[in-house]
Amino acid sequence: MSKDGRELPLKERFRTLTGRYFIAHVRLNAVHSMRECGFFIGVVSSGIYSVRFINPDGTNGREELVPAIDMRQWRVFETQEEMEAELRK
Length: 89
What we know:
Layout: H1 10-13, E1 21-27, E2 33-45, E3 48-54, E4 60-67, E5 75-77, H2 80-88
């Protein structure tokens, strides 16, 4: 998300993600999904990102490699504070 609250275009969202935060809706099955959040560690290779999820208690969780194509519905934020404000909504 841009500083003025606009959703960034897809190409721009995935250009410089290192250090940014995200909220992802993870589909558990056909009916249920859950919201997870975390931050981008860096680019591993073209289109593959290393991310660290944040546990509900605020501690660092698991690290995963995620293809950019799987992040199409993720909300991206400049700061942790912006992400946390969105989670409180």
